[in-house]
Design goal:
single chain, five-stranded mixed sheet, 51% helix, D-Maltodextrin-Binding Protein, domain 2, alpha/beta, six-stranded mixed sheet, 2 domains
């Protein structure tokens, strides 16, 4: 090779290397999407001031942050477009793109919905409910209910394990099961069947309507969910007896819904953001409520003059006995395959999970009460 021919070739190689380096630098630059932002109207079933709406905002904030400008959820409070109990219909119709609520609100469409919310208290806690949903076959049954039985144009995720809900707010303490007979009482989902079985006159109301109904005497007692919601919604202003511990809603979680056509039209990575955002928000909510619920329960007792009382054992036992009768009736409803047989199919799946997981937890975990009393209940 001559000197004259080798120099240009070396220069060509250097030039090619430089171009390659520039290309590598371009590939190494973070991928910034220039796609148009997809905006989705996302309504909660909660009043603006409720901590539940705050939990919905926490989910929205996570999704918007992770979506990198390609997707934006626009959060609205209950009533902004439709009432709380109309959310599923609005998502199905495409009036709303999505929403944040609880599956027990759709109890009137099929009672099996409530098994993904106000389920019988065979779960030890709501985290076990989420375990069954995501790893025990529950999600497949939920999809079957939405797509095959009700043919609803929606997809959904469960998120956010709730602690045991209180028996509720009353003018006088509930000491005996007999006091529930004839009581005008607010609850939702399968808990409505439970209290009807116990003789109550059940009224189902969305969260923002409960305190005015209690104040006017339209109802005699009510539960909503937790100390923070109850305090900010004004329960201590209209009743002073707060009965905690109950089996009517031992476990529950939130439901995050999206219009199926809108969801299916998203790229796979944005669908993943919506799903994994629900998981991240679920964890954060379970941490945040430890702080807020404990503070608000103390504040209601110390600042609002609320008498916080545990529900007596005879009432709890009566609830469990009533659950036996409610489950037997609903599993035995053979009016259509979508009723009793499907209801039993879900219950069987839940019982299998709870028998195994509950046995593990009870055998494996040391007593929280023993350790707590050792460290915090010493005299002097």
């Amino acid at each position: 090779m001559s000197e004259e021919t080798s120099v240009p070739r070396r220069r060509g190689l250097l030039k090619a290397a430089a171009v390659g380096a520039v290309g590598t630098a371009v590939l190494a630059t973070p991928n910034v999407s220039r796609a148009q932002t997809v905006t989705m109207r996302f309504q909660s079933t909660w009043p603006q001031r409720d901590i539940f709406h705050e939990f919905a905002q926490d989910y929205v904030t996570r999704v918007n942050a992770m979506a990198g400008g390609r997707l934006r959820l626009e959060l609205l409070a209950a009533g902004a477009v439709v009432g709380a109990f109309q959310l599923l219909d609005a998502v199905n119709a495409g009036t709303l793109d999505g929403g944040h609520g609880v599956s027990a609100y759709w109890f009137g469409k099929n009672k099996a919905f409530s098994l993904f919310g106000t389920t019988p208290p065979w779960f030890g806690d709501a985290n076990q409910l989420l375990g069954w949903f995501y790893h025990g076959g529950g999600e497949a049954l939920y999809k079957e209910l939405l797509a095959d039985i009700l043919k609803v144009n929606a997809v959904g995720f469960l998120s956010g394990p709730m602690p045991t809900q209180p028996l509720g707010w009353f003018k006088q303490a509930i000491e005996r099961p007999e006091q529930i007979r004839g009581l005008k009482y607010r609850t939702v989902g399968l808990a409505a069947d439970l209290f009807n079985e116990m003789g109550a006159a059940v009224v189902s109301l969305p969260g923002g309507e409960i305190v005015p109904a209690l104040e006017r005497g339209v109802i005699d007692g009510a539960e909503f969910n937790n100390p923070s919601s109850d305090r900010i919604l004004g329960f201590p202003d209209v009743a002073k007896t707060y009965m905690i511990q109950s089996f009517h809603q031992r476990v529950e979680s939130f439901e995050i819904l999206f219009n199926k056509a809108k969801y299916d039209g998203l790229p796979a990575e944005l669908q993943a953001v919506l799903r994994h955002g629900a998981e991240a928000s679920s964890a954060d909510m379970s941490w945040k409520l430890q702080d807020r619920y404990s503070k608000d329960l103390l504040a209601m007792a110390q600042q609002n003059g609320v008498n916080v009382r545990p529900t007596p054992r005879p009432v709890l036992d009566a609830q469990l006995q009533a659950w036996d009768r409610v489950i037997q009736k609903l599993e035995g409803d053979n009016s259509s395959p979508a009723n009793g047989p499907f209801f039993k199919k879900i219950c069987d799946s839940q019982r299998d999970w709870c028998r195994r997981v509950g046995n593990f937890v009870l055998r494996y975990e040391a007593s929280q009460a023993v350790a707590y009393n050792h460290f915090f209940s010493r005299q002097g």
